[in-house]
Amino acid sequence: MSTHVIWVNGELLESSTPSLSANDHGFLLGDGIFDTLLVRDRKPVFFTRHLRRLRSGIDRLLIENAPTDDQLANAMSQLLEANNLVDARVRITVTPGSGISALERGALPLTVMTAVPLGTKPSSVSLCTVEWVRNERSPLAGLKSTSWGENASILRFARSNGFDNAILFDSTGRLSECTTSNLYLVIDQQIVTPTLDSGCLPGIIREVLLEKGIATERDLFPSDLAQATAVFITSSITGVVPVHRVDKLQFAEDSQQTAAANDVIENLSAS
């Protein structure tokens, strides 16, 4: 990838410029939080919701002296302009900064913001179920933690076996989420998604669909996959994406309910 501009603790730097301490807790321990959001026409989509979720993660990880919401908003404007981006994928990462041990953090956190062009949205995806579980009792449950190695490993497994993503169950056997997205089933013409008790991420698109009454949440189990007439996933970058296959189960790619959910998100994103 060609060199581009990133924002690091208040400075715009070339992405090739060294900017990470060897003692940074995000690098050493995966101790940090991040959020990824969509930008359309230089405007961040659902920005307030993303900042609220990011701030909640910062508070849960007890990271002090992180940038304010206004500072992050200004940084994003600078970053988009510096990279000449109109539509983009922006990631904000915050770590406690450098420290000589797991219990000794530095006084200054590290905040990095990157912006890259949007990729191509898939028309539909395939999912596999896996033996690994989402630990709903983990202190990191529901966080976009930089401790992402587990997800990366599972995603590589899915891709190496011919699938686009993987469905995770929680430790009790309930459906939870995919490695990079929330999961929804259409059962009896109703859109249902796993509860947060399953350890899934409180996704922004999920939040909007629940608020608008497009979806409801409930405990879901593997047997519910066979009862579903359609399946889809959501993320802030891709929006609503139909699922055409889960393991050996085939699904219609454009159900009425999936189309309705996508219309809601597209209309809100454009407003």
From TrEMBL:
One of its GO terms (cellular component) is cytosol. Its cofactor is pyridoxal 5'-phosphate. SUPFAM superfamilies: D-aminoacid aminotransferase-like PLP-dependent enzymes. GO terms for biological process: carboxylic acid biosynthetic process. Pfam families: Aminotran_4. GO terms for molecular function: catalytic activity. Keywords: Pyridoxal phosphate. InterPro entries: Aminotrans_IV, Aminotrans_IV_CS, Aminotransferase-like, BCAT-like_C, BCAT-like_N, Class-IV_PLP-Dep_Aminotrnsfr. The keyword Cytoplasm does not apply. Belongs to the class-IV pyridoxal-phosphate-dependent aminotransferase family. This is Unannotated protein. It comes from freshwater metagenome.
